[in-house]
Design goal:
The chain is of the alpha+beta class and 435 residues long. It has helices spanning 11-21, 63-68, 116-121, 123-126, 130-152, 191-201, 237-258, 260-265, 271-274, 285-294, 307-314, 369-378, 387-391, 407-415; strands spanning 25-38, 41-47, 52-57, 74-83, 91-102, 156-157, 163-164, 176-179, 182-186, 203-211, 224-233, 281-284, 321-324, 347-352, 357-364, 400-406. The chain folds into two domains: 11-102, Nucleic acid-binding proteins (OB fold (Dihydrolipoamide Acetyltransferase, E2P)); 123-423, Bira Bifunctional Protein, Domain 2 (BirA Bifunctional Protein, domain 2, 2-Layer Sandwich), CATH 3.30.930. Helix 5 crosses helix 7 and helix 5 crosses helix 14. The structure holds one RNA strand of 76 nucleotides.
RNA sequence: UCCAGCGUAGCUCAGGUGGUAGAGCAGGUGCCUGUUAAGCACCGGGUCGCAGGUUCGAGUCCUGCCGCUGGAGCCA
């Protein structure tokens, strides 16, 4: 029997419509993930880019081909699809024909344990592994569901530039690039441009990479990371918190519904994720400080929270915690001062549970020209570079608010990862940027 | 940038008080009709990160350098 008339199928289709295809002859193309043999029966686990499926070989005529095949060899398998509880997918292929399309030798990543240094050096191959495969498919879905949510809410995607002529939060964390002889920087936030967008289109967001030249070496930091930054005209701090809560909850519930296979590959306990529904817990900065003190931590009122403080606060809650009204002097110039207490600003951070730290930072923006100008002067912001930003308060100014959500931290939390580096295909870190 | 830890076979690691290198996996050869990172037997595989020092003798002790990992600050 030759492989001539083929019904080429993929494992995603088998997962979704396996029952209807039971007993049918199918062909899949993919790569050998692992092989096992036991006397007169042989097993081949094939990955086809959509998932993993076990193939069973009982026909002795195929044994020589099976013996020849090695891990990560490219092959085509034809056989009968059948349901079987002993197969991890619930379905398996009883092989009738096996063809090697490319023979791989000495594939470096074996099914046993590897250290992180080795795996990172082989990132281009590591992404084929089961866990990485699941994570990066979830990343894709997270981005999709965020866009889907924002689209339903009436947002338009309004792209901020990557090259920015001036710094907004201090130049020490910016990457300088040469722009035909002029100094330019890689964007570390699209926010200021989103504010221009919000006053033109009312509800906008940008979604893309941002760059921070911070010499951070922790499980929560990347030099290049992706951020979604919605900005809304006529929205107060309260309004923007609601949007953030709904966006996070919507995305997580959609992931549980549609990426259950991937969550299973990751052995993620989804019960904790099911609880993520609005409203989240909301506390003020001052209340967060009380929590820290009640836990016996030493903390000076007025300081910013570091990651030990964030963890201490979030471990008391089973859902994200929204912390609002931080002291003015630890927050940037564009945040609106709390009219009820001039020492605080109308901002919010959202701290994820399970120790994943700050995933969202946002605020109501200063909409008064004079106050904004004053604050920019206080913080030595080069006014001439920001005249366009001040213009937004000069022509049709309006209350507006926005926030930024870090995709890798969000994905790391959903997948319960040890480190954000696995939440992006090719992470850029302090001393690691290859491949 | 600072603090801490690690660097031994292709990979993951073990190698009291200094005496000249070991296991599992991967690879190779066999055996076993239902394996789940299968199992069993046998085989091949080493500049012990680099440079120097102490010593009769260093994987082991000391110094410097390099690389990696985690944490802090900063942040999403």
């Amino acid at each position: 029997m030759g492989i001539t008339e083929k019904i080429i199928i993929d494992t995603e289709k088998i997962r979704k419509e396996g029952k209807n295809l039971e007993g049918k002859q199918v062909t899949i193309r993919g790569w050998v993930w692992i092989k096992r043999s036991s006397g007169k029966i042989r097993f081949l686990v094939i990955r086809d880019g959509k998932g993993f499926i076990q193939c069973v070989i009982e026909n002795p005529d195929l044994f020589s081909t099976f013996d020849e095949i090695s891990q990560e060899s490219t092959c085509e398998v034809q056989g009968l699809l059948k349901e079987d509880k002993r197969s991890p997918l619930g379905f398996e292929i009883l092989v009738q024909n096996l063809k090697i399309l490319f023979k791989t030798e000495d594939y470096p990543i074996t099914p046993k344990e590897h250290g992180i240094d080795f795996l990172m050096d082989h990132r281009h191959l590591w992404i084929r592994s089961r866990k990485q495969f699941a994570i990066l498919r979830i990343r894709h879905s997270v981005k999709n569901y965020i866009r889907e949510f924002l689209h339903k809410e009436g947002f338009i995607e309004f792209d901020s530039p990557i090259f920015t002529p001036s710094a907004c939060e201090g130049t020490t964390t910016l990457f300088e690039v040469d722009y035909f002889g002029e100094k330019m920087y890689l964007s570390q936030s699209g926010q200021l441009y989103q504010e221009a967008g919000a006053l033109a289109f009312s509800k906008v967001y940008c979604f893309g990479p941002t760059f921070r030249a911070e010499r951070s070496k922790t499980r929560r930091h990347l030099i290049e990371f992706w951020m979604v930054e919605p900005e809304v005209a006529f929205a107060t701090l309260e309004d923007i918190i609601n949007i953030a809560e709904n966006m996070i909850s919507y995305t997580i519930q959609k992931i549980i519904e549609n990426n259950y296979y991937e969550l299973q590959l990751l052995e993620r306990n989804v019960d904790n994720l099911r609880k993520i529904t609005p409203p989240f817990y909301r506390i003020r900065y001052s209340e967060a400080v009380e929590i820290l003190k009640s836990k016996g931590l030493e903390f000076n009122f007025g300081d910013d929270f570091g990651s030990p403080e964030e963890s201490a606060i979030s471990e008391s809650f089973d859902k994200p915690v929204v912390i609002t009204h931080y002291p003015k002097n630890i927050k940037p110039f564009y945040m609106k001062i709390d009219p009820e207490n001039q020492n605080f600003v109308l901002n919010m951070d959202i701290i994820a549970p399970e120790g994943y730290g700050e995933i969202v930072g946002g605020s109501q923006r200063e909409d008064n020209y004079e106050i904004l100008l004053q604050r920019m002067k206080e913080e030595n912001i080069p006014i001439q570079d920001y005249q366009w930003y001040l213009d937004l308060r000069k022509y049709g100014s309006a209350i507006h608010s926005g926030f930024g959500l870090g995709i890798e931290r969000f994905v790391a939390w959903i997948c319960k990862l040890e480190h954000v580096r696995e939440a992006i295909p090719f992470p850029r870190m302090l001393y690691r940027y290859r491949p």
